[in-house]
Amino acid sequence: MAAIRKENARPPFLMAIYVLLFAAQLLVCGAAKRNVVILTEDNWASMLEGEWMVEFYAPWCPACRNLQSTWEEFADWGEDLEIQVGKVDVTEEAGLSGRFGVTSLPTIYHVLDGEFRKYTGSRTKDDFISFVDDKKWENVEPVESWKAPNSFLMSCVSWLFKISMAVRTIHTSITEDYGIPVWGSYCLFAAVTIVAGLLIGMVLVFITDCLCPAAPPKGFYEPVQMEMPPTKVRRDDRPPTEDQEEEDEEEEEMEEAEEGDAEEDNDANIRKRRVKATAE
């Protein structure tokens, strides 16, 4: 048995060679990986300077996994092509996924001094090298400025993606960690959404009223003029004058004369009636 074990034992120098080869392979793989820059929310702005080729991928994507080795081989040419090669994991960086408008995987962008172009060619190392070295990117229309990843609009989209991922994380935590059913999580989010909408609406209305107060209706502050019937001022309310006193005396005399004439007429009528009555 000892002889058999001695024959099957490998020489120590062969084990040393295996270890050295394994270490060399790890170093090569590590060097290849170091050539690919891992981009995140913290360092993505570095691609706005210089020339870049950036891949957006997901670990669960089969096409992304097939492209992985090719992309690392292409990264080895980065120094010769005077470009930097990067990649973004969309499962970890949802904000960058929204910022770049990634709708399919893998998605590759060519970036030159803040000008973005989407790569749609073949996904081979030679095609990548030719695209950069032969400047084929000049035949590709750049992304419009208002849709560029560094624009204000896409920054807002990036925040929306971050919020959606946060909501998804909270939903997962509620249903898995706390055991709340899915419908209960949906009801909770609906209530929070309604309350938040009401509060935001009240704040916006208050700000709008302060900055742009509504104009009052026409004639709201104008005094209302009502037509009043003309009032007659009695002469008794006026302070008497000499002419008015004379007129008053004349009027009184005329009234007395009229009263006297009326009494005389009444007496005459009474006499006539008596005479007529005695004659009958």
TrEMBL record:
<feature type="region of interest" description="Disordered">
    <location>
        <begin position="223"/>
        <end position="280"/>
    </location>
</feature>
<keyword id="KW-0256">Endoplasmic reticulum</keyword>
<keyword id="KW-0472">Membrane</keyword>
<dbReference type="GO" id="GO:0003756">
    <property type="term" value="F:protein disulfide isomerase activity"/>
</dbReference>
<feature type="compositionally biased region" description="Acidic residues">
    <location>
        <begin position="242"/>
        <end position="267"/>
    </location>
</feature>
<keyword id="KW-0812">Transmembrane</keyword>
<keyword id="KW-0813">Transport</keyword>
<keyword id="KW-0676">Redox-active center</keyword>
<keyword id="KW-0564">Palmitate</keyword>
<protein>
    <recommendedName>
        <fullName>Thioredoxin-related transmembrane protein 1</fullName>
    </recommendedName>
</protein>
<keyword id="KW-0597">Phosphoprotein</keyword>
<keyword id="KW-0496">Mitochondrion</keyword>
<dbReference type="InterPro" id="IPR013766">
    <property type="entry name" value="Thioredoxin_domain"/>
</dbReference>
<keyword id="KW-0732">Signal</keyword>
<comment type="subunit">
    <text>Interacts with ATP2A2.</text>
</comment>
<dbReference type="Pfam" id="PF00085">
    <property type="entry name" value="Thioredoxin"/>
</dbReference>
<keyword id="KW-0964">Secreted</keyword>
<dbReference type="GO" id="GO:0005789">
    <property type="term" value="C:endoplasmic reticulum membrane"/>
</dbReference>
<keyword id="KW-1015">Disulfide bond</keyword>
<feature type="compositionally biased region" description="Basic residues">
    <location>
        <begin position="271"/>
        <end position="280"/>
    </location>
</feature>
<feature type="domain" description="Thioredoxin">
    <location>
        <begin position="26"/>
        <end position="137"/>
    </location>
</feature>
<keyword id="KW-0413">Isomerase</keyword>
<dbReference type="InterPro" id="IPR036249">
    <property type="entry name" value="Thioredoxin-like_sf"/>
</dbReference>
<keyword id="KW-0449">Lipoprotein</keyword>
<keyword id="KW-1133">Transmembrane helix</keyword>
<feature type="transmembrane region" description="Helical">
    <location>
        <begin position="183"/>
        <end position="207"/>
    </location>
</feature>
<dbReference type="InterPro" id="IPR052454">
    <property type="entry name" value="TMX_domain-containing"/>
</dbReference>
<dbReference type="InterPro" id="IPR017937">
    <property type="entry name" value="Thioredoxin_CS"/>
</dbReference>
<feature type="signal peptide">
    <location>
        <begin position="1"/>
        <end position="32"/>
    </location>
</feature>
<dbReference type="GO" id="GO:0005576">
    <property type="term" value="C:extracellular region"/>
</dbReference>
<keyword id="KW-0249">Electron transport</keyword>
<dbReference type="GO" id="GO:0031966">
    <property type="term" value="C:mitochondrial membrane"/>
</dbReference>
